[in-house]
Amino acid sequence: MSEISTRLIHHPYSPPEGFAAPQPGIHKASTVFFANVAAMRTREWKDKSGYTYGLHGTPTTFLLEERLCTLEGGLQCLLVPSGLAAIANVALALLKTGDEVLIPDNAYGPNKTLAEGELMAWGITHQFYDAMNPADLAQKISAKTRLVWLEAAGSVTLEFPDLREQVRICRQHKVTAALDNTWGAGLAFRPFDLDGDGSGSLAVDISVQALTKYPSGGGDVLMGSIVTREPALHMKIKLTHMRLGLGVAANDTETVLRSLPSIELRYGAQDAAARELALWCQARPEFAQVLHPALPGSPGHEHWRALCRHEAGGAASLFSVLIDARYGSAQVDAFCDALRLFKLGYSWGGPISLVVPYELESMRTAWPAHLARGTLVRFAIGLEAVADLQADLAQALQAMA
Ligand SMILES: *Cc1c(COP(=O)(O)O)cnc(C)c1O
Fold first, then answer.
1. Are 155 and 184 in contact (CB under 8 A)?
2. In a domain, 46, yes or no
3. Are both 108 and 200 inside the same structural domain?
4. What is the distance in A from the centroid of ligand 1 to the CA of 100?
5. Is 193 a member of any domain?
6. Same domain as 268, residue 247
7. CATH number, domain with residue 103
8. Cα 360 to the chain's mean position, in Å?
9. Which structural domain range is residue 327 located in?
10. How many other CB atoms sit within 10 Å of the CB of residue 110?
């Protein structure tokens, strides 16, 4: 070993063990070494007893998986490259030709798009059900139904469903219940303990999250998680995860690990700010309706109260307004463009407040009866001072008038 390149690559020095600091070290790998051929042949990639290949896990990804289990009250976790990849991984693991998946009509849009695209092309059918009418869900479950998606609150319109009743219906029909828990983030309610008594007697089977939102907290990472409590169900999803090659990058994992300790503080602060601003909006004549599950009168408020009230800060940082129909689309666009602190952009959970105008007609099978007519604008509240955000809304409303 005299050549410099060889000596640099096979360097004999290792630093002392036992380094302890607030953040864990980052482990990066595609290749993982084995001590000998026997170890290579016998090492099991399916559990966390060791390491085989970067795609199958590193100390860094194992660490985040275990912390996310703690956050959501689950026992197993898989990391995927985005929240949407988590949804797709679950669907591809559990559905085959001839099966049907049920999705709430107010679900995260790309979940519906996946059903209408690849799933349909592979002979997997879907139906959209009314998230606010458990009887509609019960009636749509058939012998073909293999998976029911749940979302609380619904995307964009933020109706809060009777999640407990929906899960009971899935149990009765022995259908897998998968929750998109991005809004709740494991903080608003306990997806594996919906009765809140610690018994776990009423629980979803799967909870997926876009870690992109609150766990990342920075608007700079895309990642998703799939948390379960049932080893066989986890393994089924994990085998598909492996076959699809859904790995996550070490630096992204590290970023989420760095943000996770403050998630409860951030979620609580953003929740409080969103409630204050939603209340202020409710008093403004330009808005025909304000949608926020913690506001009395908002669709599903009573279900939100029943499930989330006992927790500190249980309502995320989102609310939507329906701008009165007397304002045309050009005026609504002018309102959004006039905002200075609120940036135009998708996603949420980061420090900067965001706004998106939506075309609800194109997103739902019919205009929901519980929504006022008007143009929907969604706000995601960041970490700026509430008074400044309120002043920003007020000046933009002037621009709209
Ligand atoms: C953002 C979001 C997702 C998708 O997350 P990405 O990481 O952007 O793919 C899924 N579900 C919900 C409810 C979301 O808000």
1. no
2. no
3. yes
4. 22
5. yes
6. no
7. 3.40.640.10
8. 21
9. 262-400
10. 15
20 Cα–ligand 1 center, Å: 34
**Residue 360 falls inside a structural domain:** yes
**Angle at alpha carbon of residue 212, lines to 337 and 150, rounded to 5°:** 100
Among the listed residues 253, 233, 259, 257, the one whose alpha carbon sits nearest the alpha carbon of residue 79: 253
d(CA 339, CA 391): 10
> Which residue type does 380 have?
A
How many domains are there within the chain?
2
Spacing, Cα 106 to ligand 1 middle (Å): 13
* pLDDT in the model for residue 312: 53
The H-or-E segment that residue 331 falls in is helix 329-338
**Residue where one domain finishes, among candidates 231, 260, 289:** 260
Whose Cα sits closest to atom 8 in ligand 1?
Answer: 83
The reply to whether 329 falls in a domain is yes
Do both 140 and 285 map to the same domain?
A: no
Cα distance between residue 132 and residue 80, in whole Å: 30
Element (H, E) at 266: helix 263-282
How much is the pTM? 0.96
- Nearest CA, atom 15, ligand 1: 182
Q: How far is the CA of 215 from the centre of ligand 1 (A)?
A: 12
pLDDT value at position 59?
Answer: 97
CA dihedral over 194, 200, 204, 208, signed as positive or negative:
positive
Ligand 1 atom 5, closest CA = 83
Question: Ligand 1 centroid vs 182 CA: distance in angstroms?
Answer: 7
In the chain, the N- to C-terminal Cα span, in Å, equals 77
Protein residues with CB under 6 Å of any ligand 1 atom: 82-84, 108, 155, 180, 182, 210, 212-213, 222, 224, 347
| Least confident range of 95-99, 117-121, 385-389, 397-401 | 397-401
Amino acid at residue number 140: K
* Closest to 315 measured CA to CA, from 355, 277, 342, 283: 277
Question: Counting atoms of ligand 1 from 1, which one is nearest the CA of 87?
Answer: 10
| Cα 83 to averaged position of ligand 1 atoms, centre (Å) | 5
| pLDDT score for 366 | 86
